[in-house]
Amino acid sequence: MSKETVFAYQTVYRYLLELIDAAGSGSEQKLPSLRQLALRLNVSVSTTKYAYALLEDEGRVYSRPKLGYFAKPMPLVQLNERSANLLDNVYTFARQPGMLALCSDAPAMLLSLENPLLMTERELARQYPRSQSPQYQPFGESELRSVLAERYTRSTRCYWQAEQVYIGADLRSVLDLALNALGLTGSVAMVESPCSWAILRQFRAAKIRVLEIPLGADGRFDLQQVHELLQREPVRLVVVSSAVSAPHGSLMPAPDKQQLCRWLTERGVWLFENDSYGEFCFEPSPARYRDFADPERLVVFSTFDKIIGSEAPFGYLLTRGYGPELQRQFLDRGFRLSPIRQKAVARLFSSRRIDQHIQVLRGLLMDRMRQMKVLLDEHAGEQLQVVNPAGGATFWAQARHPVDMRRVYERLLAKRIVIAPGEMFSQDGHWRHHLRLSYTVDWSKDIAFALKMLAQAIDEERQLMP
Fold first, then answer.
1. What is the DSSP pairing of strand 420-421 with strand 209-214?
2. What is the pLDDT of residues 398-413, one digit of tens each?
3. How far apart are CA 196 and CA 283, in angstroms?
4. Residues contacting residue 354 through CB under 8 Å, at least 6 positions apart
5. What domains, with CATH codes, occur in the chain?
6. Phi, psi at residue 93, to the nearest 5°?
7. C-alpha–C-alpha distance, residues 302 and 272, integer Å
8. Number of CB atoms found within 10 A of residue 387's CB
9. Quick check: pTM over 0.70?
10. How many C-beta neighbours within 10 Å does residue 254 have?
11. Separation between Cα atoms, residue 428 and residue 208, nearest integer Å
């Protein structure tokens, strides 16, 4: 599929979202037919069909035979009807119609591979009729496992076999199974901080005690502090980002990674490497922790949706150890994942379509990052200190003067703007004066105005500080 078609698909999707939002959320709404929409927007019927398919998958629309598509009523959560959990609040309000979410971390929002994925899936469905389709495979479709093993193999030391790759429904589920299989539930983990909220939430569910190691402004650990913690605490696993630290956005020097891996090897500590943003480093060939880690105590985990989009939510992990126990866990869980969809993902890898896509997407991310940085400097430069990230989809910003970003978040909700306060990324209450800002936002909206509102909210909160 051409780059122009991808953008047409996204444009139709955004047009429909605005159409639904403009009509309100209290009642059912009839939407244009596929042909009407194609004529209206001067695109193909297949493009409008894929846009509707995505909205249907998200639960925003539904179809009635012979009647067409309808918007599903979406009752608004009132601003005073909020959970005590900050994370739940942020993601509930970010998904409300009419909200401008500055808090996302989805690179594929700029350019997805969902259309090529679905087209490939259709071609495969013709090749594999239902009676001949690939049989259910509890550890993941074999072709996809082989492609991932090949992709992650870099040397005679850092190599993988297909049977060491496991595919699950999403990132949360594969992490859960890995922790259970390796006997790590209820243990002690060391994590980089700020840390992915998804990892923190999973560790809380697994009753894992978390030790946070703050990243400095330069993106480095205090290695002396790390060494002392490893000597003092019964740490059983360490979780770090493979290349760009998410959400911090920094890139740790290779010697620091090598030193940490040396200490972990000496103590037999498991290293869990989060590769979710591994493809989005703006620097060529960054060092990864897996380049230095003990391969027998290494788990690499990631997900496809950051690159492909929401049509590919599968999570996966690679590990050499505890194969029988992992297999038992996957058999017990009994994922029922579409073999054809997994095979379609594999074909995107084997055809190098993914590599071409990543190269273009990385360039788009860099362009949007620079564009957002200009707006931040212009409209919020006096309030926020922002450093260009080394990759990823977000800025990690610090208030120039101490201010509680949760209270700033509350102020902005009233203006229908959603930010991600820094304390979401810590179990210990760190980063209260920070926030994560995305540059994979809906650029059809007035982002400059939203940033002005952010700066105003910070100023208003600062005036109330003692």
1. unpaired
2. 999 999 999 999 999 8
3. 22
4. 113, 307, 308, 348
5. 8-71 (1.10.10.10), 86-105+362-464 (3.90.1150.10), 114-351 (3.40.640.10)
6. -70, -30
7. 11
8. 16
9. yes
10. 14
11. 14
